[in-house]
Amino acid sequence: MAGGAAWRPPRPCEDYWWEWKHCRGLRHAFHHYYAHGELPACGRWREDYEACRAWERGRAAAAQEALCKSERARVMEKQKYAPVWTLRKSPPPDWYLPLDQDKPN
Q: CA 39, 44, 54: angle at the middle one, nearest 5?
């Protein structure tokens, strides 16, 4: 990220705060445990919130670097999963034919 005065956090600090509050909620914890088999790790949202506030207070370079590093890690984590379905380049050759719904199995 270039520039000291022109740089802004990727999200408003309140977004980090609400993400942390949401992550700590009972409903989210139950859903995350059901889906992943473990409780969610919410510490990163709190650290990002504190870094964002530190940057707003004093324009600390360490806070800026911590936010950039955390956002990059978050983006890379989202991109590591492959899509569930393979995308088609064109429709199937018989896409216009009627479906076989009336035939018995």
A: 150
Residue 91's CB is within 10 A of a number of other CB atoms, namely 8
Q: Give, to the nearest 10 degrees, the angle between helix 61-79 and helix 43-58.
A: 150
How far apart, in whole angstroms, are the C-alpha atoms of residue 24 and residue 4? 33
CA distance 45 to 73: 12
pTM for the predicted model, two decimal places: 0.68
User: What is the rounded (10 degree) CA torsion for 31, 19, 44, 4?
Assistant: 160
pLDDT for 1 equals: 46
Q: What are phi and psi of 5, to 5 degrees?
A: -80, -30
Rounded Cα–Cα distance for residues 68 and 53 (Å):
14
